[in-house]
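Title: Prediction job returns without error message
Component: structure pipeline
Severity: low
Priority: P3
Assignee: unassigned

Description:
Job completed but the reporter wants confirmation the result is attached to the right record. Sequence as submitted:
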Amino acid sequence: MIFHTRTLSDNLGLEILDLDLSNIDESSFERLRALWQQNPLLLLRRQNPTDEEFLGFSRRFGEIDVVIGGSRPSTQNPELLYVSNLSTSDGKPIGGLGNSELVWHTDQIYRENPATGSIFYGVEMPPGTGKTSFCSTAAAYDALPTRLKNRVDDLKSICRYGTKKPLSSLMRSQIDKTWRRSVKSQEELKVIEKRTPPVSHRMALENQITGQKSLYFSPNHTETIEGLDHDLGQELIDELIENTIRDDFIYIHDWRNGDIILWDNARLLHRRDSFDNTLPRFAKRTSVFMNPNYFAVP
């Protein structure tokens, strides 16, 4: 099956116009996977899958992970995560991440084996608010001067979920916007830090099938760069951020009910605007361990 598509921006994003994810045969799925392999972000609109259909669709790309922190799992399906500002009648949050701004980051880079495929289903999404911005680190890599490409190709960064001192100047000025603002006790903090020790990742990834390269870093999770002292490391990551977070490489998504976005964290950064907490918002998501036969995997 050949899909009808529409580009979302010059450097990022492809909307699939005629696909119902609850009814995809194998040849159509292979075509969809090939499109995701080529483009780090795909959008499907007007979807209404059951939980079983959404999970089944996600599993076709790889094993589903249960995320540490942030989102809250469904009580019936722990692989299915809820993202919401709603609460139960007794005041307990239904989902995670609330209504606050989420700064530029890439999911799970703080894990040794990250599940880099994110599949996000907007169920109740008030229009014009809580927009999500995506930034292509693949387009950013392509545009880097040769000098920077040569440097970053051989480097690894040390990343940590709970870093108190992010390396980048950008995040040093926004430390109050990290996940730490939602921690309720020192005991909770200790549990999270024990579960997420520092890990090392290559700062440039390459898809062995397509040859596409991308930067792989997270402004709010990077503590140091291996082989560089603090000042040189900060200088480098600040330069990478300056060359990456540019309007040319960014697509801003204004959500509608029924939107499903597939994004590849190995090739993207993303952030979310804050929104009015009186507006009900509810979404479901899965995090998938991507198949290295098709995708670049850290």
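Comment from assignee: result matches the submitted record. The two ends are 31 Å apart (CA to CA).
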